[in-house]
Amino acid sequence: MSDVAIRPLTEHFAVAPQLSPADMAGVAAAGYKSVIINRPDYEGGPDQPTAADVSEAARQAGLQVEYQPVVGSAMTADDVTRFAELLRTLPGPVLAYCRTGTRCTNLFVASQQLS
After folding, report:
1. Is 32 within 8 Å of 63 (Cβ atoms)?
2. What pLDDT, on a 0 to 100 scale, did the predictor assign at position 38?
3. Which pTM was predicted?
């Protein structure tokens, strides 16, 4: 896996900055079972890997993947509810990524308030 800084928040959940298709085999090898993509396509411009490309590589690596694009400055209650649902239903451990990992961290913290 490239020099991606995976930050575990719990035993079953971690966040990371932008990942690429090439990272997915390493994510699986690190023991993760699922990936949540919270970064909208093209948020970082045309060079950003698309969710479709990352999702295909994730599936080929044996991971479950969900694309839940969330605009960091406009996170909604529905975003938090959907994130909490994904955490309940996806096989863990789960790795979520966005641009820096902060948006995923904020979604995680907010989702814990629903439990």
Report:
1. yes
2. 98
3. 0.95
- Which residues face 66 on adjacent strands? 36
Amino acid at 34: S
Looking up tokens 């020099």 gives 3
End-to-end, the C-alpha distance of the chain in Å comes to: 33
φ, ψ for residue 92, nearest 5 deg? -105, 165
Q: How many CB atoms lie within 10 A of CB 93?
A: 16
Residue 96 has pLDDT above 80, yes or no: yes
Rounded to 10 deg, the angle between the 102-112 and 77-89 helix axes is 80
Q: What is the pLDDT of residues 29-48, one digit of tens each?
A: 999 999 999 999 999 999 99
- Among residues 64, 49, 56, the alpha carbon closest in space to that of 2 is found at 49
